[in-house]
Every structure is written in C-alpha cells, then in structure tokens.
Amino acid sequence: MDELTARTVAVAWRKAGEKLGFAGPGLFVGLQLDGCIGSFGVRVDQSDNRTRIVIHDERPSTLSGFHWRAGVEQSVRVRDGVATGDASFDDRVVARGDPVVIAAFFTASMRRSILRATTGGGSFEGGILSLDLPEPPRSATALVSAIRRALALARRMTTPRDLAASLATNARRDTVPAVRLNCLEQLCESFPKSSTRIVRAALRDPDPGVRLRAATVLPEEGRRQLLGLARVSGSTRPSRQEPSPPSTVRPCVR
Fold first, then answer.
1. Residue ranges per domain, the chain?
2. How far is the C-alpha of 148 from the C-alpha of 145, rounded, in Å?
3. Residue 130, CB-side half-sphere exposure with 13 Å CA sphere
C-alpha cells in the first residue's frame, strides 16, 4: 500500500469510527478501531491485508459452553463437531457443545447468516465473535457496513429462551430433512412431554425418514404410517427370485 492510499484508508477508518459512535480509549491507533458501541466492545484491526472484527459481549444471555469455528479441516469436523444435519453448513462450520442447544440454535436463518459472515473465516467462543473479512475495506462506507453486519450477528449469539419451542419450530419448518430429523430426535429425548404434538405432525412430513422416526415414537398412531412406508419400500425394491436348491428327490416317471 503506497503512502497516499494508506492515508486515504486511514481517513476512511477514522470516519467509520466516528459514524458508528465509537467511545472509549485507544481509538484510531494506526489502522485500528478499539472502543465500545453500545454494550459491545468492538475492535477492528488490519494487518497483512487481513481485516479482523472482534466483538466482545458479556451479556448473561450469551451462549455459554458452546462455540463454533468456520473453515477448519475435515479431521476436526469428524472428530469434534456436533452435526446440525445441514451437510453444506457442517462442511464449513464446526459447532461444539450441548447437542440440544446446537439443534435449537442453528435455525436455517442462523446458518445462512453465519455462512455469509464467515466467508473469510470466523469463530464464536466465550462471548467473543471474531470475523475475518475476505477483502480489506477501503472506504468508510464499506467498513461501517461490515461492522454493522458483525454487530447484528453478535446480537443473535444468545441461548434460545425456550429450547423445546425452538426445537419444535425447527422440526416443523426447517428446509433440510436431516435437520428436521435431528431436532425431532433431540426434542423427543430431552423434552418428551412437549414432543407429542410435533411428533404427530411429523407423521405427515414430506421426508420418509422423518415420518419413520415419528412412527417409531408413536407406535399405535404410527402403525399405519409404518405399513405404508413398508409397502412403498417393497414396491420400489427390485424383485429378485432366489434360485431353487437342487432337488434330491428324483421325479416320478409314469
């Protein structure tokens, strides 16, 4: 970066900080913003063409005992990750923690937001959200937009108030069948008294795997569903005629 460009970028960073209302010590040190925006501690710095936004949140409702990281190697995903059921998400983001909280927290909307925010990499742990921007922002407008998006995501990093209700909603509405199945299983295991209505609804799920799981939970009501699934499976299975064993009895000749 030449001197003129460096000055232009530095001015853009200062304008971005002023527009966002940064307050606190250590502001605008080099290409760095460090201060507070509302109740959040925010630090933005740039080095080696990498711009990182770090947002610290100490709210009691912030997720605890739970963290995620984007862009990790396959071996870590297989060994340590808790799958959401969304393969395209699980291939890019590893979540660790309570499987019930993970199933309730990672709604379709949340998964999309995290994937959009972590195109350059990112993580959330201990109330700290870190995001690496794929390209260094060169204007105040670009930097302000990036920080506001990060703040919007940080505000959503909270434990769902009602885990059972969140699992039920995901089990009914998520667009990915494996996610619906995962949420249904977590609901049945952790909140059996709250699961009956959702399980009955799952008997009509468009995915046969979800219907089968619901039918096994409610065997009396699901018996017809199980029979229907068995008939479908039997009708789609290619017929195969086993060869008859060789006869040891000589045919009778008249």
1. 3-155, 163-233
2. 5
3. 16
User: What is the secondary structure of 152-186 as a DSSP string?
Assistant: HHHHT-B--S-HHHHHHHHHHH-SSHHHHHHHHHH
Rounded distance between C-alpha atoms, residue 97 and residue 120, angstroms? 23
**Residue 216 token pair:** 């096994």
The separation between CA 233 and the C-alpha centre of its own chain, rounded to angstroms, equals: 32
Parallel, antiparallel, or unpaired: how do β-strands 122-125 and 128-133 relate? antiparallel
Nearest to 102 by CA among 177, 199, 203, 190: 190
| Closest by CA position to 30, among listed 14, 16, 42 | 14
Residue 57, exposed/middle/buried by CB under 10 A (0-12, 13-18, 19+)?
A: buried
Q: What angle do CA 46, 127, 19 make, to 5 degrees?
A: 45
pLDDT digits (tens, 9 = 90+) for 1-11: 555 566 777 88
Question: Do 182 and 85 contact (CB within 8 A), yes or no?
Answer: yes
Which CATH number is correct for 3-155, 3.30.1460, 1.10.1450, 3.40.1350, 1.10.3470? 3.30.1460
DSSP 243: P
Examine the pLDDT at 78 and tell me if it is beyond 60. no
Residue 229: closest CA among 207, 251, 247, 245 = 207
Read off the pLDDT of residues 14-64 as tens digits, 9 standing for 90 and up.
888 888 887 654 445 557 888 888 889 999 988 777 899 999 987 777 777
Query: Which tokens hold the place of 242?
Result: 């086993």
Q: Give the 3-state secondary structure of residue 125.
A: strand
